[in-house]
């Protein structure tokens, strides 16, 4: 039995807390296959710093700046390094969610045990803006870490940030793999939706429920979903589940729609499941920040994966990792275009569940995603111990792609031949 350290910034603080839920899902998958898990995170062995991680997101807080925020981040990083150093003496392997500070702490505190570093989006863009992405990736390469990016766009941005010699070493150690969703919860929601659809065949209703599950921060562009209500029929209502620094601004923007737009605030896991079961469509209207060339964009938001895995029709912006979800039935629209978003919602509502691909829902769960990470990390089931992966060669588990990225921030390495793990 292996003891795996899981290092992260956010992790659920109570049962049903959505913050860091995919980290908890990864830990649960590791336990399910027989490993012990030791979690180091804010609220799990580390004090929760005010204004970071659980208050709208660390990237947003740090981009807003302020001496107190920077000091809180530096203090937290120092405490994380000390705690990981203390606990890592017993670990057989370590997985770090977010390149900084988690993967940096894991790389500095451990030497010989396998390390898997997972980049989620905000960490990559924040490090790039601070001109720290190249040094962090060089550190991880020197540590022989295995790298995971939740979208192809993030991987390409990482390759563009480092000299070509280091980029080739990053590419040889990296896969693209979105995080998984809870398989059992997704199946339960899908069953409830199917029962609801069957009972609705004898009823008529003019009300439709459009759902946004998101932190209320700029990159999520919830304002686009609100403005789309101008182009939707009176029976359409929008439920916004989430909270964040833009709550008051967005509420003022939505005031003209009255009860057609409701702010539900943060929801626990059970309440989120109820909302997904009742939703007619989920919308993810994210858009890059600061200009398409260099601005921060989405990784692969969990709300989008949860919706598709549960069989909920999804309309999302064609940006970041959301682009890849078209293969799973998502309808994609241009970012920041309320009229196009409303048109796609209308089209999806007309189709109902017909456009969701049931045969691909299970590919979004941890049963599949966990195995993809495991193959990359080379878990030896015979010895039940971890071993670093050898230098990769083409295998049956991977698909070759030389496609030019349609990412707006692709620059130096857009024509690199890359291997992307199927998911």
Provide a concise account of the structure shown:
This protein is α/β, with parallel strands linked by helices and 423 residues long. The chain is built from 16 helices and 17 strands. The longest helix is centred in the N-terminal third of the chain and has 21 residues, at 67-87.
Enumerate how many helices there are, as a single number: 16
User: Overall mean pLDDT score?
Assistant: 83
Instruction: Describe the oligomeric state of these chains in a short phrase.
Output: single chain
CATH class of the largest domain: Alpha Beta
In CATH, the homologous superfamily of the largest domain goes by the name Glycogen Phosphorylase B
Structural class: alpha/beta
Observed structural traits:
Rossmann fold; 17% strand; 423 residues; disordered C terminus; 40% helix
Helix and strand topology:
Layout (H helix, E strand, L loop, with lengths): L2 E5 L13 H12 L3 E7 L2 E2 L11 H7 L2 H21 L5 E5 L1 H11 L5 E5 L2 H8 L3 H10 L3 E4 L2 H10 L2 H9 L1 E3 L6 H17 L8 E6 L8 H7 L7 E6 L5 H8 L6 E5 L3 H10 L2 E4 L17 H8 L4 E4 L13 E3 L4 H14 L6 H4 L4 H12 L1 E2 L4 E2 L11 E4 L16 E4 L2
Parallel strand pairs: 1-2, 1-4, 2-3, 4-5, 5-6, 6-7, 8-9, 8-11, 9-10, 11-12, 12-13
Antiparallel strand pairs: 14-15, 16-17
Account of the 3D structure:
The chain is of the alpha/beta class. It folds into 2 domains: 3-180 and 365-421, Rossmann fold (3-Layer(aba) Sandwich), CATH 3.40.50.2000; 184-362, Glycogen Phosphorylase B (Rossmann fold, 3-Layer(aba) Sandwich), CATH 3.40.50.2000. It is built from 16 helices and 17 strands. It has helices at 21-32, 58-64, 67-87, 99-109, 122-129, 133-142, 152-161, 164-172, 183-199, 222-228, 247-254, 269-278, 302-309, 338-351, 358-361, 366-377, and strands spanning 3-7, 36-42, 45-46, 93-97, 115-119, 146-149, 174-176, 208-213, 236-241, 261-265, 281-284, 314-317, 331-333, 379-380, 385-386, 398-401, 418-421. It has a 7-stranded parallel sheet with strand order 3-2-1-4-5-6-7, with helices on both faces. It has a 6-stranded parallel sheet with strand order 10-9-8-11-12-13, with helices on both faces. Strand 11, helix 13 and strand 12 (314-317) form a beta-alpha-beta unit. Helix 2 (58-64) packs parallel to helix 5 (122-129). The longest helix is centred in the N-terminal third of the chain and has 21 residues, at 67-87. The chain is globular and about 60 Å long. The two termini are 27 Å apart. Mean pLDDT is 83; it is low at 391-423.
């Amino acid at each position: 039995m292996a003891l795996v350290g899981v290092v992260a910034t956010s992790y659920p603080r109570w049962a049903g807390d959505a913050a860091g839920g995919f980290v908890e899902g990864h830990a649960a998958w590791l336990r399910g296959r027989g490993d012990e898990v030791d979690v180091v995170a804010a609220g799990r062995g580390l004090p929760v710093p005010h204004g970071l991680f659980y208050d709208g997101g660390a990237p947003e807080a740090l981009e807003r700046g302020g001496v107190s925020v920077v000091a809180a981040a530096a203090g937290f990083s120092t405490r994380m390094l000390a705690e990981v150093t203390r606990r890592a003496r017993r670990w057989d392997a370590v997985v770090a969610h977010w390149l900084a500070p988690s993967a940096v702490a894991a790389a500095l505190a451990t030497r010989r045990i396998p390390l898997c570093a997972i980049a989620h989006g905000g960490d990559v863009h924040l490090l790039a803006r601070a001109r720290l992405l190249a040094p962090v990736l060089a550190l991880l390469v020197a540590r022989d870490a295995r790298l995971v990016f939740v979208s192809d766009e993030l991987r390409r941005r990482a390759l563009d940030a480092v000299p070509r010699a280091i980029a080739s070493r990053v590419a040889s150690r990296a896969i693209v793999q979105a995080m998984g969703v809870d398989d059992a919860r997704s199946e339960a929601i899908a069953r409830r939706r199917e029962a609801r659809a069957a009972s609705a065949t004898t009823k008529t209703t003019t009300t439709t429920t459009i759902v946004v599950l998101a932190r209320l921060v700029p990159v999520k562009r919830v304002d686009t979903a609100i403005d789309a209500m101008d182009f939707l029929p009176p029976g359409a209502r929008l439920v916004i589940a989430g909270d964040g620094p833009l709550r008051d601004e967005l509420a003022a923007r939505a005031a003209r729609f009255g009860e057609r737009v409701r702010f539900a605030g943060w929801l626990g896991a059970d309440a989120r499941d109820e909302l997904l079961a009742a939703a007619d469509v989920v919308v993810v209207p994210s858009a890059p920040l600061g200009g398409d060339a260099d601005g921060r964009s989405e990784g692969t938001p969990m709300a989008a994966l949860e919706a598709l895995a549960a069989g909920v029709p999804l309309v999302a912006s064609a940006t970041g990792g959301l682009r890849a979800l078209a293969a799973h039935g998502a309808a994609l629209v241009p970012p920041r275009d309320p009229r196009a978003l409303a048109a796609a919602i209308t089209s999806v509502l007309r189709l109902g569940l017909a456009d969701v691909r049931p045969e691909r829902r299970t590919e979004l769960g941890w049963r599949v995603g966990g195995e993809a990470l495991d193959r990359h990390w080379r878990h030896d089931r015979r010895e039940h111990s971890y071993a670093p992966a050898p230098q990769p060669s083409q295998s049956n588990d991977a698909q070759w792609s030389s496609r030019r990225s349609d990412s707006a921030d692709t620059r130096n390495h857009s024509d690199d031949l890359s291997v992307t793990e199927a998911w």
